[in-house]
Amino acid sequence: MPPHTIILIRHAQAEHNISQNYTLPDPPLSPLGLRQLPHLTHALRTSPLAAQITTLLTSPATRTLQTTQAVLAALPTPHAVTLELRPEWQENSAMPCDTPSLASVLRPRFPSLASPPWETDPWAPLMAAGEYTSKTGPWAPDAAALRERARLVLGDLGSREGTVGVVAHQGFLQVVTGEGGGGEGVRWENGEGKAFGLEVGSESDGSVRLVPKEGGWVLPDAEEGGNQPAEREAEAAVEEVS
């Protein structure tokens, strides 16, 4: 049985998004991106989607892991979900900004994502993935490799149950929604979330198709949004998870 809902989330604004310096290695969130995190927590917390998430998948980049902490802060029982760092969801290009760091570098930076408290180690898929930073073979940025990677992640989503959240990147999300949606992929703003259902083909066909659903959000500009009480509470929750 496929998941009830897939929630695809783009990371908050990162340093290279504003500077357009794509030589920055695995850049973190920008100051605005950090201010967007409480808005993301609040948007998800006030959505009925949050209470339904049973699995959370995330690209192993600094900016997506920072954003993942804000998503976890919105969940009623964050450590009850299955959390997995999945290199298949990394960004398209081979530029330094889109090449994730090694697990040995990332893990000390994100102690809140270690196991325990999760029953299974969130880092296990990353440790078993081989040379996921190489941008060669299955990680290459060419069209054929990207389409195959999209096909694999869609197949993985189709094998899961419950509601699955994914924190990833604009470029690869466009590939996935294009490959699984039968057309050109949709665009995301930083921190935006969109909800999809899945249609799984026959055993002989094996195709998985994304179908847009109601739900999701676009973040307000964090510069203009003010610091309302609900957002202050969300900001405290992000700090607690971090």
Query: Unreliable stretches, pLDDT < 50, 5 or more residues?
Result: 222-235
Order of helices and strands: EHHEHEHHHEHEEH
Strand content: 15-25%
**Count of helical segments?**
8
Indicate the radius of gyration in whole angstroms. 17 Å
Main beta sheet: 6 strands, mixed
Shape: globular
CATH superfamily: Phosphoglycerate mutase-like
Helical residues, percent:
25-40%
Distance, first to last CA: 34 Å
**Backbone structural class:** alpha/beta
What integer is the average pLDDT? 86
Tell me the count of domains. Answer: 1
Keywords:
8 helices, His_Pase_superF_clade-1, Phosphoglycerate mutase-like protein, 6 strands, Rossmann fold, 242 residues, globular
What does this structure look like?
- The chain has helices at residues 15-19, 31-45, 62-74, 103-109, 124-127, 143-158, 170-181, 229-241; strands at residues 5-10, 53-58, 82-85, 163-168, 193-200, 208-217.
- Helix 2 (31-45) packs parallel to helix 3 and helix 6 (143-158) crosses helix 7.
- It contains 8 helices and 6 strands; from the N terminus they run E-H-H-E-H-E-H-H-H-E-H-E-E-H.
- Strands 3-2-4-1-5-6 form a 6-stranded mixed β-sheet.
- The chain is globular.
- The protein has 242 residues and is an alpha/beta fold.
- It has one domain (5-241): 3-Layer(aba) Sandwich (Rossmann fold), CATH 3.40.50.1240.
- It is 35% helix and 17% strand.
Question: What is the fold's blueprint, element by element?
Answer:
Blueprint: E1 5-10, H1 15-19, H2 31-45, E2 53-58, H3 62-74, E3 82-85, H4 103-109, H5 124-127, H6 143-158, E4 163-168, H7 170-181, E5 193-200, E6 208-217, H8 229-241
Parallel strand pairs: 1-4, 2-3, 2-4
Antiparallel strand pairs: 1-5, 5-6
InterPro entries: His_Pase_superF_clade-1 (IPR013078), His_PPase_superfam (IPR029033), PGM_Phosphatase (IPR050275)
Organism: Trichodelitschia bisporula
Region (Disordered): 217-242
